[in-house]
Amino acid sequence: MSICAYCEVHACLTEDEKVTPPRGCPMHKENWQEKARAAYEDHTNRKMAQLAAHVEKTGYREWTRLEEIARFCRRAAYRRVGLAFCSGLRREARIVARFLEKWDLDVFTVMCKAGSVDKRCVDIGAEDRMRPDEFEPMCNSIGQAELLNEEETELNILLGLCVGHDSLFLKHCEAPCTILAAKDRRLGHNPLAAVYLSESYYRPLHEGPDSDDS
Ligand code: SF4
User: Fold this and answer.
1) Ligand 1: which atom is nearest the Cα of residue 7?
2) Ligand 1 closest atom vs CA 24
3) How far is the CA of 25 from the centre of ligand 1 (A)?
4) How many Cβ atoms from other residues are within 10 Å of residue 138's Cβ?
5) Distance from the CA of 12 to the center of ligand 1, in angstroms?
6) What is the predicted pLDDT for the residue at 214?
7) In angstroms, what is the span from residue 21 Cα to ligand 1's centroid?
């Protein structure tokens, strides 16, 4: 088990050998660092790490994430960009697509309901359907990924995909992905609001699940 989230030492932030990594620090483990370093020898991985550093340094505290994505694409000389979005954010998707097109990107947009696949096709029971007695399209995130794979996009942007649907999308995408927004229906797609308020208005965050939560 790695203890990074509970660490007070942060030896990884310095090259000072007098700062000893704490017990449970992953830096005491073997193999994983060698594997990671070997992966950075790959030209594409190395280039992406360099681009990420460039964007971080150049626009630090100035650029919004949306601007960072556009500038990342420009710096990488990407042309074909996928935008996989949730039907609940289709207005936002249109604005984002227009913005990206202004940066001379070819934007391939695909909404989660594309394909119009009934939830019953994957054995989603009535108890888990919003409209149990009628057709209800599922979020077809594997379909979104496959469509963008066919378009040979160079980077895919996730906009508000649901928990789990985003996992399936990421699992099936061939191109690298970045997340513009994570869906949070309750908090206006700002999931960290729950964390920021956890010492004041949202103390339930510190409690575990209810006993009847399965
Ligand atoms: S890598 Fe080690 S030193 Fe760095 S935060 Fe994790 S436990 Fe702490």
Assistant:
1) 8
2) 7
3) 5
4) 19
5) 6
6) 67
7) 6
Whether the per-residue pLDDT at 203 is higher than 90: the answer is no
- Using alpha carbons, list the distances in angstroms from residue 92 to 1, 95, 159: 40, 5, 9
Pocket test for ligand 1, best of 17, 19, 25 (most atoms within 8 A of CB): 25
- Residue 64: pLDDT band with limits 50, 70, 90: very high
Verdict on whether the full-model pTM lies above 0.85: yes
| Nearest residue (CA) to ligand 1, atom 2 | 25
Give the C-alpha separation, 185 to 194, whole Å: 12
Give the closest residue to 87 by CA, choosing from 62, 67, 115.
115
Which residues have CB under 6 Å of ligand 1? 3-4, 7, 9-12, 21-22, 25-27
State which amino acid sits at residue 123.
D
SS (H, E, C) the chain: CCCHHHCCCCHHHCCCCCCCCCCCCHHHCCCHHHHHHHHHCCHHHHHHHHHHHHHHHHCCCCCCHHHHHHHHHHHHCCCEEEEEECHHHHHHHHHHHHHHHHCCCEEEEEECCCCCCEHHHHCCCHHHCCCCCCCCECCCHHHHHHHHHHCCCCEEEEECCCCCHHHHHHHHCCCCEEEEECCCCCCCCCCHHHHHCCCCCCHHHHCCCCCCCC
